[in-house]
Amino acid sequence: MGQGELEIREFPDPVPGPQEVVVRVKTAAICGSDIHMYHAPKRQDGKSGLIAGHEPAGVVERIGEGVTLVKPGDRVSVYHYIGCGKCKNCLAGFWQWCPQTKGLGAHVNGADADFVLVKEQNCYVLPEELSFIDGSFMACAAGTTYSALMKLQPSGASTIAVIGLGPVGLCGVAMSKAMGAHVVAIGRRKIRLDLARQLGADAVIDVATSDAYAEVRRLVPEGVDLVYETSGAIEAHQLMVQILKPGGKACVVAGRGPEPGINAGALIGRQLTIMGSFVLPIWMVAEMAAFIVRHKIRFDRMVTHRFRIDQAKEAFELFDSGECGKVIFEF
Ligand SMILES: [Zn+2]
Ligand SMILES: [Zn+2]
Q1: Rounded to the nearest whole angstrom, what is the distance from the C-alpha of residue 95 to the centroid of ligand 2?
Q2: Cα–ligand 2 centroid distance for 281 (angstroms)
């Protein structure tokens, strides 16, 4: 995959080694980071030939020697970074920071296939209340959001602006509503603005047809307490600084590479806190699952399109267009 091209190919079925598990994929969702890889130049190290995808849920098919945490037939959500399990970051539950971490679809074969091979610890057994779609959201979009919101701590006493209404932003709307916050959703494209409204946003701002800064100031004259920034757009990073109230906090989960600096004067004068957040630590998966069950978060309502894997080209083109909510493959 790369340079706007993808290929559907046959691969041999993976065989689990010691402490490894093969999961039969039931749902695998497309992510914004898949779209970056889809457009990126093809890599010379052969990684562009890997199976894409890192948002799987499915059923344990085969287990390797010594596996005790799961058994064949278990319904699981799959955590998508495979750490060494021994380094300081792995022991602390931050497998995404392991120096030897292997991301599904980035370093090893990913999840947009009938089977995916991971370590047993990567499998989180889904409680019966949660579907495979919930499991796919937990793997990335919901996990990224839950981890960021744990840093921001929205509550019934706070106002949060969610910027960007792709699936990660939509998770931000639904999950910060569940935490009790007043939610201002800021995005573009009717389909996504409508989804934000349906998921409980208290106000929705279309940046294509209105002055987002003026609208936020009209709705929340003192500025918002919190911002969850999911768009990665430079204008959004500027807006984030403008709309925070003194002492406000923002968490950024999108954007790559160098960009013009944010206004240091505003940061200093209003004592703002701007944080980054990167997926979720593996230790947080169980806590998030309990939160999703308790608050009955309806991730299925964010899914607007379902495809078979042989329709991958169509699915990627649709998600790339932005005229959709979450796009998933079903197997
Ligand atoms: Zn993802
Ligand atoms: Zn490690």
Answers
A1: 6
A2: 12
Q: Which of 183, 110, 109, 117 is nearest to 145 (CA)?
A: 183
Task: Give the type of residue at 34.
Answer: D
| C-alpha 83 – ligand 2 centre gap (Å) | 5
Q: Which ligand is nearest to the CA of 96?
A: 2
pTM: 0.97
Phi–psi pair at 82, nearest 5 degrees: -105, 105
Cα-based distances in Å from 90 to 82, 94, 137, 279? 9, 5, 22, 14
Please tell me the predicted confidence (pLDDT) of residue 8: 94
In the DSSP assignment, the letter for residue 40 is: S
Cα distance between residue 156 and residue 222, in whole Å: 17
Q: Which residues make Cβ contacts (< 8 Å) with residue 206, sequence separation at least 6?
A: 187, 188, 193
CA quadruple 208, 213, 219, 222: dihedral, nearest 10 = 170
Q: Hey, CA dihedral for 131, 136, 139, 145, is it positive or negative?
A: negative
Widest distance between CA atoms in the chain = 61
CA distance 322 to 198: 18
Smallest-distance ligand from the CA of 92: 2
Closest CA to 59 of 91, 23, 34, 105: 23
With a pLDDT cut of 90, the percent of the chain lying above it is 92
- Paired tokens of 249: 């906090």
What is the token pair recorded at 310?
Answer: 């042989």
**β-strands 20-29, 326-330 pairing:** antiparallel
Three-class secondary structure assignment of 141-179 = HHHHHHHHHHHHCCCCCCEEEEECCCHHHHHHHHHHHHC
Helices 234-243 & 212-219 angle (0-180, nearest 10): 30
Taking only the tens place, the pLDDT of each residue in 192-245 is 999 999 999 999 999 999 999 999 999 999 999 999 999 999 999 999 999 999
